[in-house]
Amino acid sequence: MYRKVKALEQVRLLRIQLVHLKNMFKTCRLAKNILEFYDSVPGHLTEDLHLFSLNDLTDIKKGDLGPRLKELVRLGTLHVDKCMLCQAKGFICEFCQSDEVIFPFELSKCRRCEECKACYHKGCFCSDHCPKCERLRARRDQMAKQSLESYNSEPEEEETIQERKMDRAE
């Protein structure tokens, strides 16, 4: 349905941005004022991507909902640009190592790994391998290997302790 109705697709993209922004603002102590703006629209618009009320659909058709959501995205983006706490929640692209901080709500710039949710530049994340997922996988494999090695070495230690006890008894 999103492909057939352009206005609906535009609202869907704005709502994706709003969800990401609102999640950031929930953990920013300086974003109380902006959260009040976000709470001025029905909660499902900023929390549940695919839920629409009949009023929402009517407002989309009339062209009213898109501009309201676009304004919320603009206000949210302004806050993130100026807020040091929100800037600290951004990502650095691990592929190109650019100093540019990117955010999940920047849909035109950013692509997110579905598994670990890390962000990368759209142009950089061409393949299906994610550096963070690979690091996490390697760490899990190493931990499993260490755990297996320590498990396998325990019986040997028990045998050595038993031998020592027998030597002491003699």
Automatic annotation (TrEMBL):
<protein>
    <recommendedName>
        <fullName>Rubicon Homology domain-containing protein</fullName>
    </recommendedName>
</protein>
<dbReference type="Pfam" id="PF13901">
    <property type="entry name" value="RH_dom"/>
</dbReference>
<dbReference type="InterPro" id="IPR052428">
    <property type="entry name" value="Autophagy_HostDef_Reg"/>
</dbReference>
<feature type="region of interest" description="Disordered">
    <location>
        <begin position="145"/>
        <end position="170"/>
    </location>
</feature>
<feature type="domain" description="Rubicon Homology">
    <location>
        <begin position="2"/>
        <end position="140"/>
    </location>
</feature>
<dbReference type="InterPro" id="IPR025258">
    <property type="entry name" value="RH_dom"/>
</dbReference>
<feature type="compositionally biased region" description="Basic and acidic residues">
    <location>
        <begin position="161"/>
        <end position="170"/>
    </location>
</feature>
